[in-house]
Design goal:
Layout lengths: L27 E5 L4 H16 L8 E6 L5 H15 L6 H8 L2 E5 L5 H17 L6 E5 L6 H10 L11 E6 L6 H12 L7 E4 L6 H11 L13 E9 L8 H4 L3 H19 L8 H14 E2 L4 H4 E6 L2 E3 L2 E3 L17 E8 L9 E6 L6 E8 L19 E7 L3 E9 L7 E9 H4 L7 H11 L8 H18 L6 E3 L7 H9 L8
Parallel strand pairs: 1-2, 1-4, 2-3, 4-5, 5-6, 7-13, 9-18
Antiparallel strand pairs: 7-14, 8-12, 9-12, 10-11, 12-13, 14-15, 15-16, 16-17
Length: about 500
């Protein structure tokens, strides 16, 4: 079937990512929760950027659903403002006019049957007027507690009906439950309405260019894969650090904490991609199979008191600014035991990784904002060198920088210029911004396009979600018996107990 090209289409804007060169077919995106920050800062700008890259069909439609007394033109203004402020591609009047013709708004509440009847009428009308072909994706940018009622309303109103030759898909954001039990309950609710292949669980980290580069780095090169195992790797550190506090999210964050917020999803997905075996193909089923094998092989150390750490940031000075402690944030329970820092050691019971610990840490109000995977290699035998000649030489390391400075750094030893033999660490650095002229697509651009294409490699299925909770639940249950988390000063790298965790193994955290 020939693809009609949008008036604003410019082939020079297309990135080199072949999957992003696939143009979505006739379809609409319905966003529940359009008044939230995620929709305003990420989703609506990403839709425009896709249109600007020529990757959406000319008849594409964007429908907002919220408890607002808006008309279509009011919502159009909201989208316009979000695009002007947050879009990554230049504003193009022709592209905007084409996109704006398909913008609709439905005012309603989740418990109102009539609101969903109106939504059904609107998308049926879009099928006729815009040629969306009965293909509609429902993006639930809403609290998880609202998932059951919205999915039930989609079922009751017929909006979730699967019709031959058409598709209906649902997109849900993390958190995918708060433990294994609630994750299973959530999955039962969603998959009772939508088939498993029509459920897209968004983990925006998996849309980041550098995360996907893990697969290219490992499997497109002969250089790394032969040493990507316990024979050469000493340990792996996966870090997600933020230099901000919880701020206005105190009410949301209390009771969740760093481990549930980012380790259960983002960091365990990074662990799976780092540790998995080579898949048969990059097909979604083959990728999921290898990630699930890794997650099912993860083992917790016997003594969780010595192999995990947690903390809360205290008040103090950070970056020349006086900041509040976690328990002092507006709306926070002063006796909260929720952690803002979490660290843990995990082991993987496979031949490749036997004896290689994986250390995961995540926290707020740390030294700087950074997410990275550091593969730390065993030290080479030093019998050729005197101890003084290699006194400043550390371990070889391959560091995959996920954000903010996306790229890869390799650390190795080199001779210092001069008459003597002195060896110290040097680095070779690859940065996306320096190596490529093409702009990397934003994570939500890639993920929304994948939803519209029905291409699910980057989306975890419920099996991966449940395996992740099986890893984390015993740690959370242990922490629940341990009272208050340790305090740490803002701008540092966490509590002393996290350093002790590493020191017991004769190691130390890498300073990003």
């Amino acid at each position: 079937m020939p693809v009609e090209i949008s008036p604003g289409f410019n082939p020079l804007r297309l990135p080199s990512d072949r999957r992003l060169n696939r143009i979505a077919g006739p379809s609409s995106l319905v966003i529940f929760g359009v008044t939230g920050d995620l929709s305003r800062k990420k989703l609506m700008p990403a839709v425009y950027d896709l249109a600007n890259r020529g990757l959406l069909p000319p008849g594409f439609a964007l429908v907002g659903f919220a408890r607002r007394d808006w008309e279509d033109q009011d919502f159009e203004k909201v989208v316009y403002d979000a695009v002007k402020q947050y879009a990554r591609t230049p504003f193009d009047d022709d592209v905007w006019k084409q996109l704006a013709q398909g913008i609709r708004f439905v005012s309603g509440t989740f418990d109102d049957d009539a609101s969903f009847e109106e939504l059904h009428r609107v998308i049926t009308q879009l099928d006729e007027e815009r040629g969306t072909g009965g293909n509609h994706a429902f993006y639930l940018s809403i609290p998880p507690k609202s998932f059951p009622i919205v999915t039930e309303q989609l079922r009751r109103s017929g909006l979730a009906d699967q019709v031959p030759g058409q598709w209906r898909r649902v997109v849900i954001e993390k958190p995918f439950g708060s433990d294994l039990k609630t994750a299973r309950e959530l999955n039962d609710v969603v998959e009772s309405v939508f088939p498993a292949d029509s459920v897209f669980r968004i983990d925006h980290y998996l849309g980041k260019e550098t995360v996907q580069n893990i697969l290219a780095l490992r499997f497109a090169n002969q250089l790394y894969e032969p040493i990507w195992n316990a024979n050469y790797v000493d340990h792996v550190q996966i870090t997600m650090a933020e230099d901000i506090g919880v701020g206005g999210r105190a009410g949301y964050y209390d009771g969740i904490g760093a481990a549930r917020d980012v380790i259960q999803n983002h960091l365990l997905q990074l662990l799976a991609l780092t540790a998995m075996e080579e898949p048969v193909s990059f097909d979604a089923r083959d990728l999921r199979a290898e990630k699930q094998k890794v997650l099912s092989a993860v083992r917790l150390p016997a003594d969780l008191g010595k192999s995990t750490a947690r903390g809360q940031y205290a008040g103090g000075w950070q970056g020349g600014e006086k900041v509040l402690g976690f328990l002092e944030e507006d709306g926070m329970n002063p006796e909260s035991t929720t952690e803002t820092y979490a660290a843990m050691r995990l082991d993987i019971a496979t031949r490749r990784w036997s004896g290689v610990p994986f250390y995961l840490r995540a926290g707020k109000r740390l030294g700087r904002r950074v997410t990275e995977i550091a593969v730390m290699f065993k030290r080479a035998p030093q019998y050729l060198f005197e101890e003084s000649q290699t006194a400043t030489l550390g371990q070889n390391a391959l560091v995959i920088r996920v954000q903010p400075d996306e790229g890869v750094t390799i650390r190795f030893g080199s001779k210092v210029p001069g008459a003597g033999m002195q060896v110290r660490d040097v680095t070779m650095d690859f940065g996306y911004g320096h190596a490529f002229t093409e702009a990397s697509p934003e994570a939500y651009e890639r993920l929304i396009l994948d939803v519209l294409l029905g291409d699910p490699p980057l989306f975890p299925r419920h099996e991966e979600v449940e395996l992740s909770w099986k890893i984390l639940d015993p740690i959370e249950e242990f922490w629940a018996t341990q009272g208050q988390p340790d305090q740490y000063r803002p701008g540092t790298w966490g509590p002393e107990s996290a350093d002790d965790l590493m020191a017991r193994d004769g190691r130390s955290w890498r300073r990003p």
